[in-house]
Design a protein that fits this description.
heterotetramer, A: ten-stranded mixed beta sheet, three-stranded mixed beta sheet, globular, C: 292 residues, alpha/beta, Glutaconate Coenzyme A-transferase, seven-stranded parallel beta sheet, three-stranded antiparallel beta sheet, 11 helices, 12 strands, 32% helix, 20% strand
Chain lengths: 253, 253, 292, 292
Amino acid sequence: MHKYSTQELMIIAAARQINDGERIFVGMRLPITAYGVARLTHAPNAVGLFESGVARYEPAEDMLYTMCDGPNQFGAAWTTGLIQIMGLLSGGRVHAGFIGGAEIDRFANINTSYIGDFENPTTKLPGSGGAPDIAAMAERLIVIINHQKHRLVEKVDFITSPGHLTGGDARKKAGLPGGGPSVVITDRAILRPHGPENELHLASVHPGHTVEEVIENTGWDLKTTPDLEETPAPTKEELDALHRIDKEGFWRS
Amino acid sequence: MHKYSTQELMIIAAARQINDGERIFVGMRLPITAYGVARLTHAPNAVGLFESGVARYEPAEDMLYTMCDGPNQFGAAWTTGLIQIMGLLSGGRVHAGFIGGAEIDRFANINTSYIGDFENPTTKLPGSGGAPDIAAMAERLIVIINHQKHRLVEKVDFITSPGHLTGGDARKKAGLPGGGPSVVITDRAILRPHGPENELHLASVHPGHTVEEVIENTGWDLKTTPDLEETPAPTKEELDALHRIDKEGFWRS
Amino acid sequence: MPDGSSIVLGAALENAIPFAATHELIRQGKRDLNVVAPISDISTDMMIGTGCVAEVTGAWVGNVSGGMGHNFRRATEHGEPNPIKVHDYSNFTIGMAFFAGAYGLPYVPVKSILGSDIIKSNPQIRLAENPFAAEPDPVALIPALKPDVAFLVVQRADRAGNSHIWGSTGLTQEASIASEKIIVLADEIVEPEVIASDPSRVLIPGFGVNAVCHLPAASHPSPLIGRWKRDNAFFHHYHKETRDPDSFQRWVDEWVLDLPDHKAYRTKLGGELEELRIEGEAYSAPANYATD
Amino acid sequence: MPDGSSIVLGAALENAIPFAATHELIRQGKRDLNVVAPISDISTDMMIGTGCVAEVTGAWVGNVSGGMGHNFRRATEHGEPNPIKVHDYSNFTIGMAFFAGAYGLPYVPVKSILGSDIIKSNPQIRLAENPFAAEPDPVALIPALKPDVAFLVVQRADRAGNSHIWGSTGLTQEASIASEKIIVLADEIVEPEVIASDPSRVLIPGFGVNAVCHLPAASHPSPLIGRWKRDNAFFHHYHKETRDPDSFQRWVDEWVLDLPDHKAYRTKLGGELEELRIEGEAYSAPANYATD
């Protein structure tokens, strides 16, 4: 067995959500690295889309601080405007999007806007960026978030990016074309919507973590899927790919 | 006095409608030549816009058969898309547009679509192109048409491009932002909307033509403006500019 | 491509019209097509004349050099060779319809078709009130258009369809992205590095392209910026030779049906085509994409 | 530019942010501004901290390298130095608002903000039904945004403001054209022939530009493709040094208020700036615009 960090496991678990040939809406940091790992392993024909106006085949050669940095633009498939790239999303041409968040609730609604009342917030978060658009329009949504009780909550204070709203087919009723969150990857586990209510269930526990610990660190009464499993540890191929992308070991510690 | 053809007079009369510094939506053939004459004489800071996605300062160096020909693109200020250029029009940034037509009526509505009933036309004309957009949105509209009784009619069969509709402030009521036709230049005369009804009146008769002849060749009871004048003959400067543009003498005969 | 498809044969207006694709569709005897574009010059007229077309969705059909399109008139006025249905748009409103189709908007509200009887002849366009205005403020709602296949001519592409285009593009980008499939006709096939050297010159990325064909002069007789001049005489010749159905049949036999492919068409043009080839050099100033 | 103006300080997202303009507006002590952009990184945060801002219209305010924007939080949570009103948009919806403002559409109907509470926090966005759908089909109507002034950084421009930009542009084109005035900050001033050699690389033509300033590295610490790398350390430094109002005041004194102009800022950066200068060469393949 190979040594890996929790962050590395999260990235690799996220990379596994990408299928070959798919168009993926990639956010910053962790998702961008996950995209790179997927391209270098099982998804050599995936396409990465960045809302600022970039589409890439190969992952960038150098470390990126933002999606707009030179190395993400050099040799890109397309450098264009936001409307062209987010328009692919809005036009239903994007298979999956990656987003993070400050809070997520049991129907996978995500808050990156306001803690407390939006008219008088206790904490003002930076805001939405393009996350609502990605959550609304991508065929499926992959969410990455750190697993703490104050982040995985019964009900978010503000739905920045719609998950399954009030559950069941609420998304469809609200007129949302995209399929919504299909998976939530945390540093402890993988959660998936399950059953007719589309409530997030525990689907997989990362090696070294327990079901009890995951439930304790979740802000609602977390149920498990019938086929609960342990997240497979990263393979050597996956870790090699990650180390090729993450040259400086940013995600290793 | 200098020799000139009727076509040359029409072009020069049209060129005089362009003020310096204006953004002008230029069509093909006669208007493109008129734009060139204006730029080389009294309007050296005008900008020419072409709906295919071209903006130019200097007129093209070579003969153009269409606005998309290479000489109209080489050295342009901007080669882009239709939405960017027509969007300037739609956004209220265009001072004047030039259009022609097969039929025009006494409120300066223009038909380039159907003669007869549109569901069963006796003649199907090529259609609108961008003319309705230009007629709707430009601050003012310059119309160029040959002066024949079957072209200047009481009421057009089909309003492709709106003039003053049913007259008066009908344009405003219809929600049209642009000011509508300000002048109609023919091979015999210049007509302008006049009075509260915005009906086309005879404003200027070209040298060598008479008021009676113009009225006879108009399909409605054409009235004259109080300050009816004779169209000033082209100056040497104007004719020189035209011959610089029209190198091959296309408009001379 | 099945009969009954809606197709875009160029959307740049008078340049880069994919005549090579037009000819091939005529040779294949496609039927019941809906030809969708602001203006595709005589490309549309010759497809109508050969009975390929059931519907025309656009702003203008004719011959930009010669005026009227004779086949278009015969079909709309007398139902010859078959009646066709015309869906009228202005250039800006069909642009908004493609924009909406490309980028997932159900419709776009515009001002620029108000007052035009096109609102009457095209029942797809609806009048509504702008809900944001305090006073009555009419707008016209243009629903999204999503054609089945777009054909476009580009100056250069790599084998994956990553394409460079320069010069005015009309509605090429919006019409292509709105379409379910995109077919690229490339004047030149280049190495991927050439395209990747300038990702801002890409109008349509390869991942959206379904097929790439290497076809020099595919836009003849329309021009392709920096590659081929407009063959104005050819347009006039077409206008003169298609005044009646018989002469049109002779024209289309000679220039389309009796030729096996676009290579034969280029060979038949011979020296006439060579005279249209742009030999001069007027290169763009380089842009640096270095990262360090 | 009067107090109370609505301004766009870059709309490309994380590159080409016109920090030189931000600094100058702070020095001039502008008040009651409405800062409009999807994301302008710490440009917005420092304008809020110096009391220039009454309203923020956008999708994200913070520090892309460091996370939260401390001044943004102080203003929204505690009204320090003054309360500000936030008009929430997502990136695509503010894009559509600029598109509508640029191209004369009163509003644009979108799907992509449905289900989000942004519809509640921003009453400008209204829900409606798609009149073209047979079944109930909700859409969100995004009204046009038309800011007063847009500042943008370009790699090169001529003295008339005809500008070349390459790399991703976010909403630069739509936000600029939507604005009443456009101010160009050019990294390099070139002869008109350089720009005219490639009219397809023009994002904003000179006839729409109100002023051009020659300001190298005007986007520092954000990157400018092919010219300047991102100064990531500077963003982290800002994050660390602006945690409380006093330390922010020291930072803004040192880096903005105590400096007379952008030249002094560049001099102060000195070798740090030189290390960000891109020295390499990775040129675009030429495009030929010859006509004959």
